[in-house]
Amino acid sequence: MRTESRLFIGVAGFFLVTAVGYGWRSEEPAGTAVLVIAFLMAGLVAFFLHTQYRRRGLRAQDRPDAEVADTAGPVDFFPPNSPWPITTALGSVLVALGVVYGLWLFLLGLGVLGHGVFGMVFQYAGRGGQRSNSPVDASRSSSSGTTRSP
User: Fold this and answer.
1) Residue 83 and residue 70: Cα distance in Å, rounded?
2) pLDDT at 136 (0 to 100)
3) For the ranges 16-20, 66-70, 130-134, which has the lowest average pLDDT?
4) Distance between terminal CA atoms of the chain?
5) Average pLDDT over residues 42-47
6) pLDDT confidence of residue 128
7) What is the pLDDT of residues 80-99, one digit of tens each?
8) Which terminus, N or C, of the chain has the lesser number of Cβ atoms within 10 Å?
9) Is the pLDDT of residue 149 over 70?
10) CA-CA distance, 53 to 123, in Å (whole number)?
11) Per residue in 19-58, is it b (16+ CB within 10 Å) or e — as a string?
12) How large is the average pLDDT for residues 44-53?
């Protein structure tokens, strides 16, 4: 992730220089705000990638002497199904409609959106260091032992 981190640091630097130059030369605050937001978003991605690089070290893609076989194996845990993206999408729609129709709908949507985001963040909080909770992995681990005949 070192390469990706450096790429996004460069993108964030570009947006920072552009935002400073645009804000200094123009009288328009909207364009400056958009460029500052673009800088912050690229900086957030760069920070995340750099943190992952420090935490996990070099990947096979970052090493020039790596072989293709070094990248084999499971990538990570991906949840099989979850109701939280739909809840978050519904909350986003209600927030957007609340901007148009009134504060009551906005606050209702904010509650649904917060519930969905909270659910997504903490859905697998108790998972710990387990690799996967899928039924396929559970059947593999239970079938690896010896079975007795009656």
Assistant:
1) 35
2) 47
3) 130-134
4) 53
5) 95
6) 64
7) 788 999 999 999 999 999 99
8) C
9) no
10) 25
11) beebbeeeeeeeebeebbebbeebbebbeebbeebeeeee
12) 92
Q: Are 53 and 22 contacting, i.e. CB atoms less than 8 angstroms apart? A: no
- Concatenated DSSP letters for 74-124? ------S--SHHHHHHHHHHHHHHHHHH-HHHHHHHHHHHHHHHHHHHHTT
Helix (H/G/I), strand (E/B), else coil: 132: coil
Structure tokens at 17: 């220089």
DSSP 128: T
Strand, helix or coil at 144? Answer: coil
What is the SS3 assignment for 36-71?
Answer: HHHHHHHHHHHHHHHHHHHHHCCCHHHCCCCCHHHH
